[in-house]
Specification:
Radius of gyration of chain A: 18 Å
Number of strands of chain A: 4
Largest sheet of chain A: 4 strands, mixed
Distance between the termini of chain C: 28 Å
Largest interface: A-B, 44 and 52 residues
Oligomer: heterotrimer
Strand content of chain C: 5-15%
CATH class of the largest domain in chain C: Alpha Beta
Distance between the termini of chain A: 18 Å
Strand order of the largest sheet of chain C: 2-1-5-3-4
Strand content of chain A: 5-15%
Order of helices and strands of chain A: HHHHEHHEEEH
Shape of chain A: elongated
Number of domains of chain C: 3
Chains: A alpha+beta (165), B alpha/beta (595), C alpha/beta (589)
Number of domains of chain A: 2
Chain lengths: 165, 595, 589
């Protein structure tokens, strides 16, 4: 599992100080949560506690915000986050098949992470690459014109690259 | 020897299609050929021709090459750049015209019916270079406003132009400005709503990626008009490239004196910051967006008070979407009269649509208001691929409706689309062919809105869930007599009583498909039939003689409905089959028929 | 504000501008159905039950949020509206457990009443229901998300009125659930156990932990000596659970009912309130004279105690070390009283009936254990006791009144007013003045600190020294006052804080609002308070130090206020506790 490094919490605190003293300080909560997720890959409780203390915002409020927005992960995520676009274009061009293949191949459900912490499977709204539907996004990169076979190949490639280090 | 400028589309789709690798290859090839001193490579934002990407444009001559691969690079360098012979087989279209200061592309079908106002610079300028924007009259409108116009005059101009909000509802922009300008200051806010979230829509993303300065210029003018000196762009975190370009554009604008204290030497000060969304469709709603910027759950609140009176931090706030802002500089420069000469009686100017679905030319199009749906689908969009039959066009995304063939002559404007039973929306346009099931389509959109419902008000939170359950059981062959009436009763109730626009429009895809394709619903319920062959539970599966007996289908069948010896034809037991379609997907020989 | 003309259901009315449709309609005698609305809380506009039709507006509008305009034509009861409201309430029912007849709030449920009045006689849209685990971790407040209809009243109560911010709506859409941060158990959260979420909940999504069955069992245990005590404000409110108007004093009936239920001895917490005044007034004077930490803050309210330990650990030294009256009575029952009747304290079963849910938490505080035992073995709320009386078949309204037992049963008027905001301070002033000056305070009704104003201030002169006091009720008001204290530590000498709006009369364990009444209605709170002030006025002894049984207790057992014996049985200590509570500087939406 991912451990919470104190220096990252320090970096988070440091990030918050840039807003300190400015009007509507508390309104920067979502930017701060983005930063926390960039640091940890998800929003660990320690990070939210740190934010609560540094921004003087009740933890319940932070929790309400963190759970409202789907962009925020509340659990640790894998090395490769696979987002399957279920936008209209992808849907009509077979996104469901792509998703089913991934589920079978990785043996996880949407929102879960493989036990080896390699893959997290997510659904995504339109990624704006409708011209090459169906698409998936692995971390920041988009892969298009997919079918079951291409998806399996991709997964195997990722596995290989992870094994190499 | 002639000098060349090569422009590579650096939009998301083209990048995915290896435009950046092509750039590297081009640079290497040019270096190798020893012509680096006379060839410059520029990047541009999305040109909207995603289906033909990656796009490479060679100027002068404006040769537009599509579907370019790395293998084409040596030919482009040898033939075009060295021998001066454009390559016909890669060319998409040759002609292009200048109409006043913006480009209206030539008579290739894709561009012929288009008129580019908000996208006028997209695909032409390098979005990361402010000089490109300045060269095409960039920030002239701002200079004009600051030197020649009073805030009242700016508001009047926008009012007179007839511009209406491009985010969906079509509220007159000038009136909104006037209301906000009237409120006491000095603390007021100008917001650009770039929380584009409709599935299938990417207008705002491409507009910002392709020409960020237009939006910024529009906002500064808005700030001047209403007496605000603080702007905020609220943009989806899922758009990293657009965010990066905005950041660069804001920094460049600050450096050049278009943002900050005493803009262009005037007494007017204004600055813009970017705030990120975090994945909530409902934040496109004004009051939800405000809550989100305030660092709270993006849940809408009842109106009044409207944001114009009490918005961000309870201060008067002017919110417009990306496309609306992008219209402003043009209106200021070329005048309200010119702008209002484009379009229909009630809807002025142009509208950008993201064409998607079963259509040949997937991409962004900008057409004058009044263009018919038929022109967009069949001329601009190139019609339906694979010889399939047109069935419907869906506008307005999850808030809109499905219009069948009889509405194809409908002219694009706010009122006509509403009269036909859909909405303008923010500009998603999805073409549906005979292979699509309307029940399934309605279910898809409702699944989206149901998932995006903030959960605050009962009708939307509970009602969309029940509607989705009914739709799901219909598509699974479990529909009951009376289900259609229940959908209508719930749908109308949710429309009339929900708190915000999301709920008030969520039933539209269902209600419009019931209205226009009621027989498909009835077939699903009474005959357990899906004519498009989409609802798998209603399908039967059969193994054909072409089966080679590989056993792939047998292996994947979760209900052990398939039997057969190796290398012999297999068979499906219809009693055991659960219609999951796994066998169909697994068969590599096309030996399974569904129907 | 100006006069405007509006039309409701075609009838013309001249009304004040600047109000909502609902407020205006209320004045005109149209009760528009409602659910999420509460007059003390911000407008949620969420349930959509209060929708009306406004001519010229395309959709229905929520009357709780929509302002009236001149010439506005409003309809409140059209066929379409009736069906829409009906369908909305049905949708809520469809996602609600259908266990009314076994539900704690059967007959007391706003949703149930609403569903009946909407005419929902058959169901059209049933489907999947939510399923969540109940949170049974807390000694005081339990949470059942399955019963929650997401009106948001509890969240607003917890954050706007109490400023505790323990609750939030988490997740979204159909999956929205009200919960503390991280969905942590209540016991581990910043919940102060005040129970106000229970008071405002229209259904049974929040309830007190119910001890009625255990209590019935204990009352049948022949090996135990069952001892009851009951708080001042219980007598002022329990009548409402028997359909009486708020403000009827049911002291005599309660004592009789306790005996009929099987209690061997019935004491009055008001006696311990007098004792608290003796100790607290003395502690205050000692601090005043010896340069101790001031302002001194009262410590009777258990929700405030938990709040203080989590939110204001910096003020621990300001808080009086006195136990609450309940806990003082508890430790005396198991020492002084046990000794008096010559029994082993462990054979005594000590039960307190309180207006309060937080007292359930307090009774279990380890800091209060003396000689290895808890002073109070069980706390039940006014609501639980009302149910037990009904369940046992006691004719509460017609019962012969009885008097509490000696030696912990007699009380002064000062003890009675403990149950309302300002009462402790008023009682303390009566005694402190006399202890300090040696003269009897004549004008003993201190109007400045009575009533429902959030923060009240007063001053008095004792031998030429000006003593400045302040009173706050409800933790949100307390937080306002304590912010001042942090900034100006010299401003006050003595502060009373009660955790609940109105003080104990508005406690989290008081009877639910009756049909058509609003939870925590100010009118009802005032009437309950008035019952206690009347009790005070009709007593011949109105100062705690004049209570002869209190004097006797000091003679026989405690020696004198603040003596080592007093300290052992009547005082306690506090610790900073985690999780630390955070009160935001701004209103969070």
């Amino acid at each position: 599992m991912i451990d919470i490094q104190p220096e990252k919490l320090g970096e988070l605190r440091q990030f918050i100080t840039q807003f300190q003293g400015k009007p509507y300080f508390e309104s920067n909560l979502i930017a701060v949560l983005h930063k926390a997720q960039a640091l940890f890959g998800y929003l660990p409780r320690e990070a939210m506690d740190t934010i609560a203390e540094a921004m003087n915002i009740p933890t319940a409020h932070i929790w309400g915000v963190a759970t409202f927005y789907h962009y925020f992960n509340l659990k640790p995520i894998g090395k490769f986050v696979i987002s399957v676009c279920l936008g209209t274009a992808c849907y009509v061009k077979g996104a469901q098949e792509v998703l089913d293949t991934l589920r079978n191949e990785l043996h996880i459900k949407v929102g879960e992470t493989t036990p080896d912490m390699l893959f997290t499977l997510q659904e995504a709204r339109c990624l704006g690459a409708c011209g090459i539907a169906p698409v998936i996004m692995i971390n920041d990169k988009i892969y298009g014109e997919l079918n079951s076979k291409k998806v399996v190949d991709l997964i195997n490639q990722m596995r290989k690259s992870a094994a190499k280090g | 020897m002639e000098k060349y400028v090569i422009t590579l589309c650096d939009g998301t789709t083209c990048i995915q299609k290896k435009s950046r690798e092509i750039r590297t290859a081009l640079e290497a090839e040019i270096q190798k050929a020893g012509i680096a001193d006379r060839v410059a490579i520029h990047l541009s934002g999305c040109l909207g021709m995603c289906a033909k990407g990656p796009i490479v444009i060679v100027n002068p001559g404006y040769s537009m090459y599509g579907n370019v691969t790395i293998n084409d690079v040596p030919e482009i360098v040898q033939e075009h750049l060295i021998k001066g012979r454009p390559i016909a087989r890669l060319t998409i279209d040759e002609d292009h015209l200048y109409n006043r200061f913006f480009r209206v592309f030539g008579d290739a079908d894709f561009f012929g019916k288009q008129m580019r106002i908000t996208l006028r610079n997209c695909g032409i300028i390098d979005p990361e270079n402010i000089d490109d924007y300045l060269a095409l009259r960039g920030y002239e409108a701002l200079a004009k406003v600051l030197t020649d116009m009073t805030p009242q005059k700016v508001v009047e101009t926008v009012k007179k132009s007839g511009l209406r909000g491009r985010g969906g509802a079509g509220f007159p922009t000038g009136v909104k400005w006037e209301l906000t300008a009237k409120e006491p200051g000095p603390e007021k806010y100008v917001i650009c709503n770039a929380d584009e979230g409709d599935p299938g829509a990417f207008m705002d993303r491409s507009a910002i990626e392709g020409d960020p300065h237009t939006v910024i210029e529009g906002m500064i003018i808005g700030g001047f008009a209403i007496g605000s000196n603080k702007g905020i762009i609220y943009i989806r975190a899922e758009y990293p490239l657009a965010i990066k370009r905005l950041e660069k554009a804001l920094a460049d604008a600050r450096k050049n004196g278009m943002l900050g204290d005493k803009i262009l030497g005037s007494d007017f000060s204004f600055d813009i910051e970017i705030r990120l969304g975090a994945g909530a469709f409902v934040c496109g709603e004004e009051t939800a967006l405000i809550h989100s910027i305030e660092g709270a759950r993006g849940m809408p609140r009842p109106r009044p008070p409207f944001p114009a009176q009490s918005g961000l931090f309870n201060k008067p706030t002017l919110i417009n979407n990306v496309e609306t802002w992008a219209n402003i500089p043009v209106i200021i420069l070329d005048g309200a009269d010119w702008f209002s000469s484009i379009g229909t009686a009630t809807s002025k100017g142009t509208k950008v649509f993201a064409l998607a679905g079963k259509i040949k030319n997937t991409g962004l199009v900008e057409v004058p208001m009044g263009t018919t749906l038929r022109e967009i689908v069949f001329n601009v969009g190139g019609g339906i691929p694979n010889g399939k039959k047109f069935k419907a066009v869906q506008t307005g995304g999850p808030s809109g409706g499905c219009l069948p063939e009889k509405y194809l002559e409908t002219q694009i404007d706010y009122e006509s689309l509403a009269a036909a039973g859909s909405i303008m929306g923010s500009g998603g346009m999805i073409v549906i062919d005979e292979d699509s099931c309307m029940v399934n389509m309605a279910r898809f959109f409702l699944e989206f809105t149901q998932d995006e419902s903030c959960g605050r008000c009962t009708p939307c939170r509970e009602g969309t869930k029940r509607m989705l359950e009914i739709l799901t059981r219909i598509s699974e062959g479990q529909g009951q007599p009376g289900d259609i009436e229940k959908l209508e009763r719930l749908g109308n109730m949710i429309k009339k009583s929900s708190l915000c626009g999301l709920g008030q429009s969520a039933p539209n895809p269902v209600l419009s498909t019931i209205k226009n394709f009621r027989e498909e619903y009835e077939e699903h319920i009474h005959q357990h039939k899906c004519r498009a062959g989409v609802c798998t539970s209603l399908l039967t599966f059969e193994i054909l003689d072409s089966c080679v007996g590989c056993g792939a289908c047998k292996k994947v069948c979760p209900s052990e409905a398939i039997s057969g010896k190796r290398k012999e034809k297999h068979a499906i037991d219809p009693q055991k089959c659960i219609h999951c379609g796994q066998c169909f997907m697994a068969c590599k020989f096309g030996a399974i028929r569904k129907g | 504000m100006s006069q405007i003309t509006i039309f409701i259901n075609d009838k013309e009315y001249k009304v004040e501008s600047g109000q909502t449709i609902m407020q205006t309609a209320d004045h005109l005698g149209y009760h528009i159905p409602r659910l999420c609305y509460h007059p003390k809380l911000s407008i949620e506009g969420a349930c959509r039950v209060c929708i009306v039709e406004v001519e010229g507006v395309r959709n229905f509008v929520a009357s709780c949020a929509y302002p009236v305009r001149d010439g506005m034509k409003i309809r409140t009861n059209t066929k379409e509206l009736r069906q829409t409201r009906r369908d909305i309430v049905e949708l809520i029912l469809d996602n609600h457990p259908e266990d009314c007849h076994t539900c704690e709030r059967n007959y007391n449920c706003e949703l149930q009443r609403l569903a009946y009045s909407m005419g929902i006689r058959r169901r059209h849209f049933t489907g999947e229901k939510k399923h969540y685990d109940k949170d049974l971790s807390s000694e005081a407040v339990i949470r059942d998300p399955n019963k929650c209809i997401l009106c948001g009243r509890c969240v607003r109560m917890c954050s706007e009125i109490q400023k505790v911010h323990n609750l939030t709506q988490a997740h979204r859409g159909f999956k929205t659930v009200v919960m503390p941060a991280y969905n942590m158990p209540f016991k581990e959260s910043v919940c102060t156990a005040c129970g106000q979420c229970i008071n405002v909940c229209p259904t049974a999504a929040f309830l007190e932990r119910d001890y009625t069955q255990e209590l019935f069992e204990a009352l049948n245990d022949k090996s135990k000596i069952k001892v009851a005590q009951f708080a001042p404000s219980v007598r002022a409110a329990i009548g409402e659970a028997f359909n009486l108007e708020p403000g009827r004093n049911m002291e005599g009936e309660l004592v009789a009912a306790f005996r009929k239920l099987g209690f061997d001895y019935v004491f009055d917490t008001q006696f311990a309130a007098d004792l608290t005044i003796m100790e607290e007034a003395s502690e205050f004077l000692e601090r005043l004279q010896s340069g101790g930490k001031l302002p001194m803050i009262t410590s009777c309210s258990s929700a405030w105690m938990k709040c203080m330990e989590q939110f204001y650990p910096d003020l621990i030294e300001n808080v009086s070390t006195c136990r609450s009256p309940m806990s003082m009575a508890g430790s005396l029952i198991k020492s002084y009283f046990a000794d008096k009747i010559g029994v082993d304290p462990d054979t005594i079963y000590s039960v307190a009936t309180m207006c309060c849910t937080a007292k359930k938490y307090e009774a279990a505080r380890p800091e209060l254990v003396v000689d290895g035992r808890r002073g109070v073995d069980m706390v039940v709320t006014t609501r639980e006791m009302a149910w037990m009386i009904k369940s046992a078949g006691i004719d509460f309204l017609n019962i012969e009144k009885e008097k509490p037992d000696s030696p912990l049963g007699m009380s002064s008027g000062a003890g009675a007013i403990f149950g309302t905001t300002g009462g402790v301070m008023e009682a303390a002033i009566r005694t402190a003045y006399e202890l300090y000056t040696g003269e009897t305070l004549v004008d003993i009704e201190v109007e400045a600190i009575r009533g429902l104003k959030g923060v009240k201030e007063g001053k008095l002169t004792m031998d030429g020294a000006e003593i400045r006091v302040a009173v706050a009720h409800g933790l949100g008001n307390a937080c306002q006052l304590l912010d001042i204290v942090r900034k100006e530590p010299q401003r006050y000498h003595f502060i009373e804080i009660m955790g609940c709006p109105g003080g104990c009369v508005g406690g989290g364990g008081q009877p639910y609002a009756s049909v058509n009444a609003i939870p925590l209605d100010e009118n009802a709170l005032q009437k309950r308070a008035q019952a206690l002030y009347d009790l005070d006025r009709h007593k011949t002894i109105r100062r705690s130090h004049d209570n002869p049984d209190v004097q006797k207790l000091y003679r026989e057992f405690l020696q004198r206020p603040l003596s080592p014996v007093s300290h052992k049985y009547l005082h306690t200590h506090y610790h900073a506790k985690t999780p630390r509570g955070i009160i935001p500087r701004v209103e969070l939406k």
